[in-house]
Amino acid sequence: MNADPSASRTLVLVTGMSGAGKSTALKILEDLGYEAIDNLPLSLLSELIQARGENGQPGPLALGIDSRTRGFDPGDIERYLGPLLSAEGPDEIALLFFDCETEVLRRRFSETRRPHPLAHDRPVVEGIERERALLGWVRDRADITLNTSRLSVRDLRDIIAARFESESKRAPVIFVLSFAYGRGVPPDADFVFDVRFLSNPHHEPTLRPLTGREPEVARHVRNDPTYGPFFDGMIAMLTPLLPAFERDGRSYLTIALGCTGGRHRSVAAAEHLAEALGGGRWQVTVRHRDLDTEPAAPAMQANG
C-alpha cells in the first residue's frame, strides 16, 4: 500500500462543501488526463466502472459527488464503495474532500448570486451549516482534505497536479508557504516554523511599505544575528528528510513559515528557503498566503 494517499489512483472521488472548488478540481483533473464526470448518482458507480472496463477504458476516472446529487446520502458512499474497495484494493480509490470557511463560502455565493443547494428559501449560512453537518461523515473518512479558503485557482492547480498527476510525468513538489499567524496556521502544513522572533521590518519606516520580496527587507531579516543559526538548522533538518519522504511514497510536502502580519519576515524567509531547496529532485513552489490581504485585526497594523 502506498503511503501517499493520492499516488497511483485510478478513481478519485471529489466531494465536499458546495462552493469550495469541486467543479474547478474536476476540470483540473480532466486536464491531467482523468475522465471527469460530475454529479453521478452513487448507485450507478459500479455500472460505470464495469462498463469502462468492458469498453477498454482503463484510464483514471474522477467523479464529482455532492449534495446536488439526486438522492444523495453520505451513507451511500460506504454502501456503494465498500465492494469496490474490497475488489480493487485500497490503492485504487482516493476520496478527496474540499472544505472552506463558512464566511468565505457565504461571500462566494453572495458575489455569484448562486443559490446554495440546501438553502432553498433560507439564508445561505443555514444551508452551509446544514451541508457541513450532512457531510461530516464523509469528511472524517477522506484520504485528502483541502481547505480552499485562501487558495487561488493557480494554487489549487499546483496542489492537485502535485498529488494526482501521473507518476511518470511528475516530480515531487515542495510547497513553501508564508502566512500570518493572525489568520491561522495553514491546515495542510507538514512543517511549521515561527519566525516572529526575528527583527521586524515593520518598525522601520522605510521598510514598512515594502514586502519580504524586496531586497532591502530580505537584507534586514537576514542581518538579524539569530537568523543565520535558525536558517542553517532548518536546512540541516529538512535536507535528510526529503529523500526519506520520497522513499515513503510522498509526492508533496508543505513547509509553512509564519510571522505576525505575513508581509515581511515570513515572506523573506520563505523566499530564501525556496531558493535553498531548489535545483534538486524536488520541484519547489513558493506562495505567500497573506501577502495581499488586509490585516485581520487592528493589532496587526503594528506587526509585519
- Gross geometry: globular
Spatially, the strands of the biggest sheet line up as 2-3-1-4-5
Percent of residues in beta strands? 15-25%
How many individual β-strands?
Answer: 9
Structure description:
This protein has 304 residues and is an alpha/beta fold. 38% of the residues lie in helices and 17% in strands. It contains 10 helices and 9 strands. It has helices spanning 22-31, 45-54, 74-88, 102-112, 124-134, 136-140, 153-164, 215-222, 227-247, 265-277, and strands spanning 11-16, 35-38, 61-64, 93-99, 144-147, 173-180, 191-194, 252-259, 283-288. The strands form 2 sheets. Strands 2-3-1-4-5 form a 5-stranded parallel beta sheet, covered by helices on one side. The chain has a 4-stranded parallel beta sheet with strand order 7-8-6-9. Helix 1 crosses helix 7 and helix 4 (102-112) packs across helix 5 (124-134). The longest helix is centred in the C-terminal third of the chain and has 21 residues, at 227-247. The chain is globular, with a radius of gyration of 22 Å. The relative contact order is 0.14.
Question: Which helices and strands appear, and what pairs or packs with what?
Answer:
Blueprint: E1 11-16, H1 22-31, E2 35-38, H2 45-54, E3 61-64, H3 74-88, E4 93-99, H4 102-112, H5 124-134, H6 136-140, E5 144-147, H7 153-164, E6 173-180, E7 191-194, H8 215-222, H9 227-247, E8 252-259, H10 265-277, E9 283-288
Parallel strand pairs: 1-3, 1-4, 2-3, 4-5, 6-8, 6-9, 7-8
List keywords for this structure.
304 residues, alpha/beta, 5-stranded parallel beta sheet, 4-stranded parallel beta sheet, 10 helices, 38% helix, 17% strand, globular, disordered N terminus
